[in-house]
Write a structure and sequence with these properties.
This protein is mostly helical. The chain folds into three domains: 20-100, Dna Ligase, domain 1; 106-198, no CATH class; 210-308, no CATH class. 49% of the residues lie in helices and 8% in strands. The protein has 16 helices and six strands. The chain has helices at 2-28, 46-55, 62-71, 91-100, 117-125, 131-138, 149-154, 156-159, 185-198, 203-209, 213-226, 230-245, 253-260, 269-272, 296-303, 327-338; strands spanning 36-40, 81-85, 106-110, 175-179, 312-315, 321-324. It has a two-stranded antiparallel ribbon. Strands 3-4 form a two-stranded antiparallel sheet. The chain has a two-stranded antiparallel ribbon with strand order 5-6. A hairpin with a 5-residue loop joins strand 5 (312-315) and strand 6. The N and C termini lie far apart (116 Å).
């Protein structure tokens, strides 16, 4: 009898110790006021998760969490992803949280008029998006790499583009909210949808002028870089069209800067000799595609330019613009602007 009572006492003592150790950790918890980031890999076992939680200091016993998983099946339904968990959180709460999946992180991305595809890629890389995934999606006209084929099936204006064309020019600049786990496709779709919305009224005027959307966007991208306000943009758009009409080179500094990667208001003579189809000092006509992502004002200016008979323009160092009808007037304007 004494042996029985002894064994019963030992059993109760062990049960008491177990209860004092296990149940508070499993069902009560005492979460800290800070969280620790963890990442649960795909196909992680309960043992893997328990070890991870223990190593990160979120729980004090990997064995305790594995024991809890025997009692509660929820612990076996973890969804891979990133989580922020507070040390001291109960096993039950941890199991519930990781079985629901990671909280989606919605971020704000702002793109301004005149930014390039390179700028777009650099911004997404800051959000841990790989450069390869961005390039595969958006392409690169300069190297003849096309944007992802599936996009052309969703947007008619993309389906009409020449082979080897990127999304340069069509990623409409604005401020967007997007799920981080949907990058880069999520932001591209938002921008392409916005481009489609902003240019929905262009079709009739394009048909009337016999011009394509790609021509308008390409011209608008140059106008975006060259003009500083709506009036200038409309006048500059007309100047470029006047030049195109007579087979004169556009001679846009912005197209040269696109090739060199500089932002020089007055490219050097060596820059002007750069061999590239985008160098409008050496090549007639529009470049193969846009040199940036233009905003609505530049797109409107390209579609509805001012009425003038100028063929030249330049800005002085203060930003004032001078227009000229011929080379002689342009020479005078250069003297006014630069003293040369």
């Amino acid at each position: 009898m004494r042996k029985l009572f002894f064994l019963l006492g030992i059993t109760l003592l062990i049960a008491g110790i177990f209860t004092a150790w296990f149940f508070p950790a499993a069902y009560v918890g005492a979460p800290a006021e800070f969280t620790i980031p963890i990442e649960i890999e795909k196909d992680s076992s309960v043992s893997d998760i328990a070890q991870l939680l223990n190593q990160k200091g979120i729980i004090t016993s990997a064995y305790g969490y594995q024991l809890f998983a025997i009692i509660d099946e929820t612990a076996k339904r973890a969804i891979a992803g990133e989580y922020d968990l507070a040390p001291g959180t109960s096993y039950k709460q941890i199991a519930r949280q990781i079985s629901l999946g990671p909280k989606r992180n919605e971020i704000t991305l702002q793109f301004i008029e005149g930014q390039t595809l390179d700028d777009w890629q650099a911004r997404l890389i800051l959000e841990d998006v790989s450069a390869v995934s961005v390039s595969d999606l958006a392409g690169d006209t300069r190297t003849g790499k096309s944007f992802a084929k599936g996009l052309g099936e969703q947007f008619d204006f993309l389906a009409e583009l020449p082979e080897g064309t990127s999304l340069e020019g069509y990623l409409f600049p604005n401020t967007y909210r997007v799920w981080k786990d949907q990058l880069p496709l999520g932001i591209a779709l938002k921008q392409l949808n916005e481009f489609e919305s902003q240019t929905a009224s262009f079709a009739e005027e394009l048909a009337k002028q016999g011009r394509t959307m790609h021509e308008i966007v390409t011209l608008a991208s140059i106008v975006e870089k060259e003009g500083r306000n709506p009036e200038e943009r409309r006048n500059i758009a007309r100047i470029f069209l006047n030049r195109l009409d007579i087979g004169m080179r556009l001679q846009s500094d912005a197209t040269v800067n696109y090739v060199t990667g500089d932002n020089n208001p007055r490219p050097t003579l060596d820059d002007l000799e750069t061999e590239s189809p985008y160098n409008t000092y050496k090549n007639k006509g529009l470049p193969p595609g846009p040199i940036c992502n233009p905003g609505k004002e530049a797109l409107d200016a390209a579609l509805n330019p001012a009425d003038n008979n100028y063929y030249f323009y330049l800005h002085d160092e203060e930003g004032n613009i001078y227009y000229g009808k011929n080379a002689e007037e342009h020479k005078v304007n250069r003297w006014k602007a630069y003293g040369e």
